[in-house]
Amino acid sequence: MTNVRLNGVPVDAYPRHAPEARRGRMRPITTTGHPVLHRPCRPVTAYGTTELAQLVEDLFATMYAADGMGLAANQIGVNLRLFVYDWTENGTRHVGHLANPVITRSSGRTLDEEGCLSVPGRFARVPRAEHVAVHGADQHGTPLTITGSGYFARCLQHETDYTRGRLFRDRRRPKKGRSR
Questions:
Q1: Is 159 a catalytic residue?
Q2: Among 20, 57, 114, 159, which one carries the catalytic annotation?
């Protein structure tokens, strides 16, 4: 049985995909080289709007269609500090979204392989913290702190980096035999 944490809070049951995805539409994924990926995003300042709700829905729909575990707004061409995630590890499923993410705590170091929907077909070993806490807000402006360990911590760091205009390959340690 999998435990589910929705925006960091345990819930009793949750569907296979976030309900927002049913209302969202898939958007094209922006790939490396597009300027929106390589500069810090604007902070979310208007919470509780239909536009922000639609963006969260579209992010979930696009992430699931692309078989991803996280997706930042700039990866669909939107210059806002926002991402969604859905990742299961060690019997716990983490699902949610975070606006204006800031890593407030990190510890430990790990080196593991990462890839990205915006850098198709490329992988690299990337150093990351083993444990993190990321603070931000949900689409309604409610403050959230999401904690993660292992690969979920890697996901949180990866997506937070995107909102700051930094791709995983900017942190990489190239793996022998793989293209850069």
A1: yes
A2: 159
